[in-house]
Request: fold
Amino acid sequence: MFSADFALGVAVTAVATLAYTVYNALTFPKRTRESIPVEGNPSDPIEAVVFPTCDDFLSASGPCAKLLTFLRLSGLPHTESHTNNPGSGPKQKMPYIRHGETVVCDSSFIINYLVNTYGSDKKVLGKVRLSLSPEEQAFATVVSSHVDTAMYQELIYLRWLDPSMVNIENFRKLIGVPKPIMRFLRVGMESWLWGYGLVRHSHEDIVTMVREHVDALDVLLDDKKFMLGDDLTIVDCSVFATVHGFLRTPVPHAGVQEYVKTKANLVAYERRVAALVFGN
Reply:
């Protein structure tokens, strides 16, 4: 027989454990969220930390490809460091830059930071026009947000969760991840996209959405040289990174790759910007 004191201790421990569990379930986690610097010292060296690249393919990561596009088109001197570990960054996401003693994360914030640091008094930085009218800026903001958010999530789905294991195996080989780890990562991606709401739709409906978004980009580009006309602007970094990812990645993307290839304007646009990015 257990003593009354022992039974009381067990009961108190059980209640305390239950209370702690309920508290954690109902309490927002305490996370450190530091503000991103606005600008830095122009004399500091720039080191871009990104996922590995290929000779004619910037990156399997859209955000990394976007940043590399900007750095190469802007002509800013920089070095590139490659890693497969997103946890190496202070926010556990890629890409990020080291600028002297400052670390800046997120491709959009990095680009804004670099523009403020090196181009605040310039209308053009390298090949990129910085000076935009209010209407152009509004167009660029909406298109960049759509490409960097909606189409980015869709591209993640097609590469990581497409029911066709052929696509997933091709992508696994591309990024060099062992099979057991790939399965672990896919579970995380599924959880992420479920929370985002995308994988609550059927595969067929998701592919339809992707095609509609490709159609929209094609219409917005029309027969223009770049998204805002004859000049490269920052919005082209986002659009190019996405179209480049669809066309150059050795993954069919559930037929979306072939669908993008039917869009002559987008194909010509990708080749035009790629020639500037890769210098050929």
Notes: The mean pLDDT is 87. The longest strand covers residues 46-50.
